[in-house]
Amino acid sequence: MVGSFSSIGPSIRRRIDRWAPPPAAEGRTVLVTGATSGLGLATANELARLGATVCLVGRDRERTAAARRGASSLGRAQVLSETANLGDLEQVKALFVRLTGRLDRLDAVIHNAGVLFHTRQLSPQGTEATATIHLLAPFVLTEGLQPLLRASAPSRVITMTSGGMYAQRFDLEQLVAPSGEYDGVKAYACAKRAQVVLTHEWQRRHGPGGIDFHVVHPGWVDTPGLSHGLPGFARLLRPILRSPPDGADTAVWLAGGRPGQPPGGQLWLDRRPRGEYRLPWTWMPSACRVAGGEALWAWCHAQAAEVVGGGAAR
Ligand SMILES: NC(=O)c1ccc[n+]([C@@H]2O[C@H](COP(=O)([O-])OP(=O)(O)OC[C@H]3O[C@@H](n4cnc5c(N)ncnc54)[C@H](OP(=O)(O)O)[C@@H]3O)[C@@H](O)[C@H]2O)c1
Predict the structure, then answer these.
(1) 3-class DSSP string for 4-53
(2) What confidence category does residue 314 fall into, taking pLDDT thresholds of 50, 70 and 90?
(3) Residue 185: CB within 6 Å of ligand 1?
(4) Which atom of ligand 1 has the smallest separation from the CA of 229?
(5) pLDDT digit string (tens) for 169-196?
(6) Among residues 39, 98, 112, 113, which one has the fewest Cβ atoms lying within 10 Å of its Cβ?
């Protein structure tokens, strides 16, 4: 795992698999959440350099404007920005309404925003904050942007999960209402595992409409988020952590358009599809995973409907 998830992984795979530079992205429009820091900032910068129209989403107006200025300086690409706190579903709803009015196409969405909380927190709607940012916000945004994604098909939705999910079996109850004393690492891992399950369910429902869903593990990356979320881990492994551009590479590669795009419903690390289980107690037979995906989708839909109304999330 150390070799694979650290900077050693991409340095070897780049040579073995003869990585070509990510394809030019002129004419494509890509939305990136959490674009003010770490992986999201690196993703947005690289897509702008490749010529995509990039729409950055940040939660702080000034940081978002600074990220937009930075990305704009990298080429002639158009760089747009929006601000929204993705921990508040009312703001997520307002975001997709604004985006629908503003964008005339949308080729890819990268759900990158994420955080590891050290204390239990709730959204203004009363949902658990980790589940809100990693699942409910992407759900509301994806369902709200679905008409635009469908009209731009073939399009794709890419979600940034984490290797932490390998430690956790999918458990909807634990995700929705973590029991016992709050454990931020466990809540984060639960949400990251659920992102993989949701990706399969999205693919099952929307894949036939021309939208492909992917989930990416970026490896262990030297970002402000890692230093804040897991300070001891970040300090210990700093010499072999990946750079943000290396961590962002697979998401950028998937977001760029090219012939022979791989099919959706897969977990990726370093441009290769990966297995979803490494520990025996996390394994689920596929029938259970499908049932879990349906239950997760139903929970997301019910929470979204409270805010958005039943029509926006079909
Ligand atoms: N770094 C790693 O080793 C690693 C490993 C596996 C997975 N990941 C995943 O990769 C993604 C990016 O992480 P990172 O390491 O780049 O972290 P980061 O440097 O902290 O960046 C996180 C981004 O998400 C934004 N964000 C956080 N909460 C938000 C909210 N409520 N509303 C809107 N935006 C919000 C942050 O905004 P601000 O700038 O305003 O804080 C920031 O732009 C996350 O999903 C993380 O779980 C990271």
Answers:
(1) HHCCHHHHHHHHHCCCCCCCCCCCCEEEEECCCCHHHHHHHHHHHHCCCE
(2) very low
(3) no
(4) 20
(5) 999 999 999 888 999 999 999 999 999 9
(6) 98
